[in-house]
Every structure is written in C-alpha cells, then in structure tokens.
Specification:
Length: about 325
C-alpha cells in the first residue's frame, strides 16, 4: 500500500507516543513550540503556514468557523480530550470536517480515581489538616480535632453514568457506599452490577445524596445544571464533586451555598471561568481545588495520545475511526 504523506499540526506538546506513531507512518508533524495555549490569532497564523491535513487539538483550543475558514485544507480535528465542547460541531459538519475525541478505558479509570480521591480528601479534611501540620500547629492528639465524615454507608449520587461515571460508581461501591444515579438513559446493567437505584430526575436525586458527583458533558442542557435552586435541594451535610466541566455548576451560586453552609463542601477539578475559580472560593477551607488534572496520570495521557494518533492514522488510511464524534 502506498502511504500518502500527510502534514499534521499539534496545538501543544503532548506525550511523544503520538508523534512517534504519526512520524512512523511517514507523516510530517509540526507542533506549537511553546508550552502554552496558542491564542486564536496565533493558532490561525500557525495553521496558515502550510496546507495541513489534520490538527491534533486540545480542549483549550476554541475551534469555530473562523478557524475552519482559515485552514480549509484541514479535514480532521482529533481532539486530545474526552470532552469536545471546545469545538463548534455544527460548523464542522457544515464543512464536512471530521472530529474525533479521545476517551479511553485508562483515562476514564483515572478520572474516576481522581473523583474518589477528591471525595476522600474533602471528607477527611486532608488539606486543612496538612496545612495545620505544616504551620506547626499540632500540639498533641485531641478528640475533637479535624473530625471528618466517614464514607461507608453514605449515598453516592451520580449525575451521568457513562464510562467515567460508571467507573466512579464501582470505586464508591468498593468503599461501601450506596449508589444512586440519574441519566438520560437508564443503565440496567449498572443497577444489576452495583444494586444502583435510578432516579428519573436530578431534582429527585439530590435530596437523597450524601455526595453528588457530576459526569455529564457540557451541553446547552447541562449548563448550570447545578444552580441555586438545585443546591438548595441538597442536604446541608452533602458534598459536591465536579470532574466534568466547570459551567455545569453555577459557580457563584455554589460559592453562596458554601458560605451559607447550605452544603458541607465541594471538590472541583474544573471551573466555570477556567482557569480562574470565582473570587472567594479559594478562601473556603471546605473546598478542594485541582487544576483540571483528573485525567493527568502518565498512563492516561499516553493512552489519550495514542487514541488521538490512531484516529488520525485511521482517517487517512480509510479505516473506521476509533472514536468519531462528527463527520
Ligand atoms: C478532560 O477534561 C477531557 O475531556 O479529557
């Protein structure tokens, strides 16, 4: 078979495995030389340097009509992320541009692990206790010091049970939690496997939850899914976890709920106005913040790089795309 040479642009440094795979097929690979997000103007300029055939993009690249128009030779955007809310799919479809994402078994497991690690950290008050130690404040054991919340026997409520949600549910079940969930599609297999209970609406789910964990994509219908009214449905002892997308929560409403002690705490890996949390959030001791790293294990990021490269290779070799979003 004659492999036609292709030219690929990678919008930011990612694990080498993808570059090796693409170069191994004889493709030319150029990448953003800086370890930072390119502004839209810089991205357009970079894409106009050559007639690129495909772009390996990141969730921090806003890919819309302006970018597509500036790079008419690009037939494929292979997004290095599970989410693809950074891409205007309608515009891509209009132009016959293909879009793929990068969900993998490894990355969904890693995000699920991060979710549970955040839950334990915030419920066991690890950050407050660690800060206390580092400041030299520990003067001896005390019965009422840093009392947290035991997870065993508590109710873990998932909003969304796709790959990541289902894996988080399994881990929570392993910790002895009761699993309840809501989703647009009922998962009878999860109900059988974990004894999970389905709730037809989020409004019915929230009042029974000790921990609410969000695992939905960002869509028009999921923006501010957790708003002031819904936060008021949660127990004052409940915790909220978000490893999905920031705008799923109205972050100002969350700040108010936390300040007024209407919920017990929150652990957030993603933010409504990324990269900056709303002012005041970093001051609260019962909030754990991580910088959008839920999938950032070496194993997971290698798997994501591999699937992104596989999508590009499959596209140009006329094979079925492993994880197609739109064509
Ligand atoms: C990360 O947020 C991803 O969508 O992979």
């Amino acid at each position: 078979m004659v492999v036609m040479s292709k030219t690929i642009f990678i919008t930011r440094m990612i694990p080498d495995v993808a570059i090796r795979m693409l170069q191994g097929r004889g493709y030319t690979v150029d990448s953003n030389p800086y370890d930072r997000v390119l502004s839209k103007r810089e991205l357009i300029k970079a894409l106009q340097k050559k007639p690129y055939d495909a772009v390996l993009s990141l969730l921090t690249d806003k890919l819309d009509a302006e970018v597509f128009d500036a790079a008419p030779s690009v037939r494929l955007y292979a997004n290095y992320a599970t989410g693809f809310d950074n891409i205007d799919l309608e515009e891509a479809k209009k132009r016959g541009i293909t879009v793929t994402n990068a969900p993998t078994d490894m990355s969904s497991e890693t995000v699920a692990e991060h979710t549970v690690a955040m839950m334990l950290t915030v419920m066991c008050r690890f950050i407050e206790a660690d800060t206390f130690m580092r400041k030299g404040k520990y003067k001896g054991w005390a019965p009422l010091q840093f009392m947290g919340t035991t997870v065993r026997g508590k109710t873990f409520a998932l909003v969304g049970v796709g790959q990541i949600g289902a894996k988080a549910a399994r881990l929570a079940k392993g910790l002895g939690m009761e699993i309840v969930y809501t989703d647009v599609v009922r998962s009878e297999s999860l109900e059988q496997e974990l004894g999970a209970t389905y709730y037809a609406s989020i409004d019915a789910l929230l009042p029974v939850a000790d921990v609410v964990s969000l695992h939905v994509p960002l869509l028009e219908t999921t923006k501010h899914l957790i708003n002031d009214a819904r936060l008021r449905c949660m127990k004052p002892s409940a915790f909220l976890l978000n490893t999905a997308r920031g705008p799923v929560i109205d972050e100002h409403a969350l700040l108010r709920a936390l300040k007024e002690k209407r919920i017990a705490g929150a652990a957030l890996d993603v933010f409504e106005f990324e990269p900056v949390p709303v002012r005041g959030l970093t001051k609260l001791p019962n909030v754990l913040l991580t910088p959008h790293i839920a999938s950032a294990s070496v194993e997971s990021r290698d798997a994501m790089a591999t699937i992104a490269a596989q999508n590009i290779i499959a596209f140009f070799e006329g094979q079925e795309l492993p994880t197609k979003v739109a064509a």
